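Take one protein record:
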Amino acid sequence: MSEQDRPGPPDDEPLIGGTSSGTPPPAGGSPSPPSRDPGEGGRVIGVPPDPEPRTVDPWESQHLRRSTPDLRTYGRDGPRAGYYGATRRSLGRTAAAYFFTIAALVIGGILIFLLFRVLNDNGDEPPVEPTVVAVTPEARIETPSPGQRLTVDEELTVIVSVVSGEDIVRFELLITGITKDQVFTSRVTAENTYAAVLTARFEAAGVYDLVVLAYTAGGDEIQTDPIQVVVVPSPEETPEPSTTALVVGVTELRTGPSGEYNQAGTLEPGQVITVTGRTRDQQWLQLENGLWVRLNAVDIDPGDLADLPDVDAPPPPSPTPTPPPTPVDTGDSEGNGDGEPETTTTATATPTSTAPLNAPDFIPTNAVLLDRGATLRVTITNTSTNSFSGAIVVRVEEVPDDPDEVATPIELAENLSMEPNDTAALNFTIDPPVTEQITVRVTVDPDDAVAESSEDNNQVDFIVVPPFAGPDLSLAAVVSGDVLRVTIANAGDPLSTNDARLVISVPGETTTRTISPLAIGEGESVEIDDIAVPQTGEAIRITLFIDGVNEGSTSVPNPNVVDIPPETPTPDTGEESGVEGPEEPDLGDGS
């Protein structure tokens, strides 16, 4: 910087070390102006010494000259900083500041660009779709088991399990086509598996169909296969518990609860025995010595029987092997005993053959008095998974209060066609009519003429009461083409109701026809002839409900699915086509 461009103090500011205008002049002389030359008045404090002279190019001289007024401006860096605070800025330092600022901006921009690039790359990738496994919807009733028995007003617990790819939001329990309970929550028991518990009570005895409907969150419906439960009348009185029973007839003691076990003794009428257990079907009793006796051979209070614990049967005995023929020396013709041995065979009992795999299983499920005690209607159920078609014998007899009294049994033989879990009703004429409560014993196939999967559940005792005055209804049904005609007959007092329903059911399908109002006088009948015949199921079962009470049922074969030869016309009535046994194969003329 040249001398002419160096900033200096104001003209009126005294300089330390210089001659001040206020200093009196020497004697005899005139005052002289202040001098800025250190050679004249000494060095001036506050004024830097002159730098070494250097060459200043025109651009720098112009630039410094343009900046000089700024350096001389008071108040730039504070009061009075124009002179004392003025400093010289380095051009290199200013360039470095610009460089670092620009570099920081560039690096920051790169980082921001990379950040947005990463975010955009992640956003552009399609979301990973979860692997969807196809699930076949399925629903089944875990509890109760088909054919389970319970009494009137006893609570039934129904446990259902559903497999579904969607959430199950509602369960609905239908009993013979009528909704009895609903559940709007479900319990997840496994992946895609849901469960619920529903309950119901029955006000009348009979055989009822159970179906559970499950609804998914998407509105789809999943239905279980129908099962049947048997409701029996409740005993009016429960006697005091007891573990004794009275033998009413000569009977055998067995080592197990069936005729396959070995005989271990005999009981005589009048003997009192101590009972410690029973089979689950209540047909055999276990004595305190471990032997078994049939229930129908003893007289035991029903309450005592119900209180006895269930006892599992011991393993059945192994069949006795047939010994080989025994050689016997019969001697020679002269009797010296050295002839050829003669073979003899020892006769042995042949074990009873087991029932075939496709055998039915019949159980008496209900007995009720009708027609003011003149008719006993007995219901039997085929509880197996096999169908049956043929003749069956059912025996009924009164159980007298006096063990010495012998009742006269009544037997009825019918040709029946029964699907798995199907029922059939048989009417017995009682003469004279029953006028008071009695106990009747119902035995299906008393002579074991039909091979069944179980022969130990064919006999059940029922307490029956004469009906009060009121309607006495019966059902009849025939199939005519594609129309099912149902006739409701009334042999009792006039009937008038606004709640009558016909439930038409085949395996896997149940429909309900409401009849409102329904009025039938004594001795009159009503025909319902606009019911479509189901397209599935070999047998059609029709059940009548009046005010929610099961009044009876009947079954007819379904000609839509029965395999009938083309030349054979379709039978007009179910009675003609449902009672005949299976046709025997044509064996020709013996050739």
About this structure: Residues 361 and 424 are 13 Å apart (CA to CA). The chain has five domains: 1-88, 138-232, 244-307, 362-464, 473-578.
